[in-house]
Design a protein that fits this description.
Layout (H helix, E strand, L loop, with lengths): L5 E8 L6 H12 L5 E8 L10 H17 L7 E5 L5 H10 L4 H5 L2 H9 L6 H16 L4 E3 L5 H18 L7 E3 L34 H9 L16 H14 L3 H7 L5 H28 L1 H30 L7
Parallel strand pairs: 1-2, 2-3, 4-5
Helix pairs in contact: 2-11, 3-6, 3-12, 6-7, 8-11, 9-11
The chain binds tryptophanyl-5'AMP (TYM).
């Protein structure tokens, strides 16, 4: 607890620009949580190093994601928004917790398996220990809740296992966090292949709708979305393309799938796709506008980063010192 509030933690990797899966699956839900919780949101730039990156591009991406947090509506006075790499406690705790995590557990992670297949020429140790660093992000702030999309659920379960293992040996050091999966948009799928999740790294750029895409581009991508040869707008596992579009529409409007089925009863796919495209494009307009303002206001953004890094460091160091003491590392002589 901080200021009598439960603690909430989440992060996004500093990879490229954010897509509507990141936005509807995570970011949009975060905005409504800042009154109820003490919130920390990192830009996971250390995690982004598990894939070979151009240094200038990584720096730009990290700043883009940070500005996107604010543009999406996270008030930096209420939410602690910072770069993971600027708080060294993350990397320090990660080493210690590596020693409390089994290789077998890490080998089982779906994301590790997927990424190893995708980057067969660079299966580095960071890719394997990625979830340990993620666990440390969360545990350093004694987070109670972690809002994420479904794809991160397995990492959250591992976080709980590692924390419980550590607490079992040393007493109640860590709060055991819970995943918080939003109702709508928890799993937004690719527009080109609705059996795959929407992903920044997809080679087919028509499959991904970016938060910064302009209106025409958004509509064009939705018009091209893969559906089936039927013409009924029904929310069913047998119709993954339409199901995905309904999910996206629900995430953008707050409606339930049954309402959407009624709204488009008797209407064709073309009309439905256009409606989804327009609705999503309109929902993104304010985010894009705010983002453009932030891009021009370097001093404001820099000020936020400085203040919030200090705040994050304070809480992270408190936990790190406790852990160091528990495991028997020598006290620092001041
Ligand atoms: P990342 O950067 O892949 O994704 C950020 C958030 O967006 C969600 N998400 C999606 N939701 C719905 N549909 C999709 N297609 C989709 N794609 C991504 C993710 O679930 C996530 O919530 N390992 C994390 C970053 C991280 C983190 C943390 C998260 C680092 N440390 C600590 C929580 C707590 C990741 O790669 O997210």
């Amino acid at each position: 607890m901080i200021n009598d509030k439960k603690v909430l933690y989440s992060a996004m990797q500093a990879t490229g620009v954010l897509h509507i899966g990141n936005y509807f699956g995570a970011l949009k839900n975060w905005v409504n949580l800042s009154d109820e919780f003490e919130c920390f949101y990192a830009v996971a730039d250390l995690h982004a190093l598990t894939i070979r990156r151009d240094p200038a591009e990584l720096r730009r991406s990290a700043r883009n994601v940070l500005m996107m947090y604010i543009a999406a509506g996270l008030d930096p006075e209420k939410n602690c928004i910072y770069y993971q790499s600027s708080v060294p406690a993350h990397a320090e705790l990660a080493w210690i917790m590596n020693c409390f995590t089994y290789i077998g557990e890490l080998n089982r992670m779906t994301q590790f398996k997927d990424k190893s297949a995708k980057h067969a020429d660079n299966i580095n140790a960071g890719l394997l220990t990625y979830p340990v660093l993620m666990a440390c992000d969360i545990l350093l702030y004694q987070a109670d809740v972690v809002p994420v999309g479904i794809d991160q659920k397995q990492h959250l379960e591992l976080t709980r296992d590692i924390a419980e293992r550590f607490n079992g040996i040393y007493g109640d050091v860590f709060t055991i966090p819970e995943a918080y999966i939003g109702k709508a948009g928890a799993r937004i799928m690719s527009l080109a292949d609705p059996t795959k999740k929407m992903s920044k790294s997809d080679e087919n750029q028509n499959s991904v709708v970016y938060v910064l895409d302009d209106k025409d581009t958004v509509i064009r991508k939705f018009k091209r979305a893969i559906t089936d040869s039927d013409s009924q707008i029904i929310y069913s596992e047998d119709k993954p393309g339409i199901m995905n579009l309904i999910d996206i529409y629900c995430a953008a409007t707050g409606k339930a799938p049954a309402d959407v089925e009624k709204e488009f009863d008797g209407k064709g796919y073309g009309e439905f796709k256009l409606a989804v495209g327009e609705t999503v494009a309109d929902a993104l307009v304010p985010v894009r506008e705010r983002y453009a303002q932030l891009e021009k206001d370097k001093a404001y953004v820099d000020g936020i980063i400085k203040e919030n890094t200090e705040k994050a460091s304070y809480f992270a160091n408190k936990t790190l010192r406790k852990v160091q003491k528990k495991v028997g590392l020598p006290e620092r002589i001041k």
